[in-house]
Amino acid sequence: MGALRDLTITQQVGLLFLALFGILALVTIVEVSRTIRDLTPERQEMHEQFKRDLRAVWWGASLFWISWVLGAVVATILFGLVSFIAFREFITLTQTRRADHRSLLLAFFLVLPFQFVLAGSQRLDLYTVFIPVYVFFAIPVVSAFGNDPHRFLERTSKIQWGIMVCIYGMSHAPALLLLDLPKFAGRGAFMVFYLVVVVATAQIAQEIASRKLRRRPVARAISRSFSWRAWAIGAGVAAFVGALLYWATPFKPIPALVMGFIAGGTGTLGEFVMKALKRDAGVRSWGGKASVTGAVGLLDRVAPLCFSAPVFFHAVRWYFGL
Amino acid sequence: MKLPEAAGLFLAFLARLITGAQGHWYGCPPKAEQRIYFANHQSHFDWVLIWAALPGDLRSVTRPIAAKDYWTSTPLKHWITREIFNAVYVNRQRTDDQDPLEPLIEALKNGDSLVIFPEGTRGNKGDPMPFKSGLYHLAEQFPHVQLVPAWIDNVQRVMPKGEVVPVPILCSVTFGAPLQIEPGEDKRAFLTRARDAVVALRSIR
Question: Touching check for B171 and chain A: CB below 8 Å?
């Protein structure tokens, strides 16, 4: 590790991406070679699912790389675009009425860009309160001027909730990427990398654990696989991986372990909440065949991150006293 | 690349960014045959949505119908409909000596495809209104042209009547199987059947 610490920051980040794309390329090559063999239909289905996931990881890694190479402005725009697409999916499957038109315009074309500008320019005070305070106030006002009391509270809350998850949550990715930490300036990419790896680890570990354990689900109506023990295993593995990655972060090993637990645990709980939401909307996934609209299912992929990013971000700020 | 072409590409990109403009070819593949697409009409955005859902090479040969008095009233409107969309202009006021379908017949004789909204005006509640007879007359005169029904979903949420700025919400266009006038079928029966074909596409997902 000593040799690694002697490298310049740019070299370290370059190495990180080299390793990331190297592993991805390796997995893809193995994957392609496996495709050539004959598979049973059941295995084929799993295989297709894996291929879709792999493609999503490629997209994510490329987005991450491009936003790192091209700097703050491009990073902010790219993550803003992701947030836009996710919010578009959310609103499509939410019941809104004509009177909400203006508040939706406000959310899409003013709140979203402004929040990402704040994230990109690191005005962290306003950035933190802009949506929870000012937008929380503005949306119902605009909706009320739409002159339609029918299910007013329900409509307004749904829009605000969507803004919180898709815009506020997502905007923490560029904020984290650009965050200036003491003695860690210019290495925000490692923080985003750490967060994504930890959250993904928690998801995968929880999935495997719930398959192996077959515990009684805590909330059968929402998820047939979620149990507290599986969740704890997921978060625990995430904490362990987080501690292993401590060299890539500004944390010492023990705080890295705790941060990994926080990020992984909130990510899988966020996924659980999204399941409840999908059950409510009557769809199995935000994209794919069940969808009316042919949405790409981006929300499914980014939701755990949207939930854990703000918690993680503020844990980091609190830890460093920023 | 000329300016209208670039503006067209930009407009299609914008429509896709805002609505997704997903085209589902359920009853027929997207082919460069002469066709009349007919669809439900809920919003000014309908035409742009169908146009953006078509593959690029079909866009240039598929033309919308535009009301002459409205779409030629300012130079910008005129330029957009003429240069980008290559619209067929029709008069809304009926005069005794002129058949209102004449510009459409001319376009079909040239081999162009058309998109028409046979309800005549924008509806705002769920089911489409009864179809006007223009579709029947065109089908009668051009039996070789395919009549493709299309259902446009969700677009009323993007831009309700009276609003100007569209909200980003995903929309889809489902294209159904082509139909023809059956031997001995009268006008009413055909128009009802055509409307049913459009409505039937709503439940396909």
Answer: yes
